[in-house]
Amino acid sequence: MKLIEHELVDRYIYYLQRYIPYDKQEAAKEDFLDILRDRLPEIYTEEDIKKELNRMGNPYEFAGAYSDPGNFLLSGKNYEIFKAFLKILSISALIGLVVFIFNYFRRFQGTSLFDILKSLVVSIFILSLLPSWICEKIKTTKILRALMDEWDIDNLYESKKLKLEVYEIGLLMVKFSMYFMLQVYILTASINISIATYSFVMILFFINVLSVNFKFSENTIFSKTMYVEYFVDIFSIISLIFLTSYHMPRVFAIKIIILCNIVNLILNSYTISKSKNILLSRKKRKKNRRRNKKDRD
User: Fold this and answer.
1) Are residues 168 and 279 in the same domain?
2) DSSP class per residue in 33-52
3) Looking at the structure, do residues 178 and 220 belong to the same domain, yes or no?
4) Counted domains in the chain
């Protein structure tokens, strides 16, 4: 078996690359493998690999040399995510605006295009920057906590790398497009839709973007990001049903957003069910760790 195909080595590389910029991930990986090859005997065993990985210590410490000092409020991978969200949200806003014009052209004629575009641009920037900044703070806290804790090779089994499919990106863009369309719909509404309703819709939009940002930043299916997504999807569905029952018309954009949240719930449930054995073994390791700690005390 090649060294890179070994499960522990692969998981170490995952943690090493987890928060560093995309353009430095390959270099960090190659440097790590070169060091590991030099330290291992010509014919190595499983125990040799475990021993050397323990000697190398926490992968976050190794990754420190490849992290950017910062780009205004963000650094490393979260800065890359911020730029990606600027593109995704900009395209989604354009799609949402086009769909709105196509369906509500008469209403659009009576509004100021500059005011609408200004609102969309401000939303795109805030929804790109603020969630990435929050994830940056969480990342910094997690790394500091991990560096302070005693390093154990069992930590490498805590997470599994997230593989994001093309259809998942498409699903996100459909949902974000409908949120932008809903924003324009409220801003141009001839009937009275309160500022509180508009603010609540934008808060829903924000927490949906934030939950996706968590997923991209953590890059794992086994973290609290999965539970955050569950909460956001369920909360969004209930909230939008309530809004359309009492505070605004049932426009088709809301129905599509609800459908996207339902599909995401199903996809997440499928992902968890596929990895049930890994989750069970993770719980077992945590119990054993707690038991060993009690025995030492």
Assistant:
1) yes
2) HHHHHHHS-SS--HHHHHHH
3) yes
4) 2
